[in-house]
Design brief:
The longest helix is centred in the first third of the chain and has 30 residues. The protein is mainly α and 95 residues long. It has one domain. It has four helices and no strands. The protein is elongated and about 50 Å long.
Amino acid sequence: MKRKISNSIKFVSTVLITSALGLVWVNWYLHLHHQSLPTQLNSIYWVGIIALIVHGIEGLVAAFKANARNEQAIAYGIYTFFVGYIGLKELSDRQ
């Protein structure tokens, strides 16, 4: 994959995953105060939850794969959680 496209995807992915984490936090905060998200944000909230689950699985795979290669498992797991598939691809391309 071209470097410029890869960097753009990593940037956008990091922004969106951070936004999804923020939306989950806001939803949690509102529930503590017996309120709820506006109905317009419900579908965005659930798409964010799915993205967080998928990225979490990718982060776990990257952590186990990095650990098997005697690399920094936690760092690769967190990095891959935020950038997604590209993090796994970069780890696979490392020799």
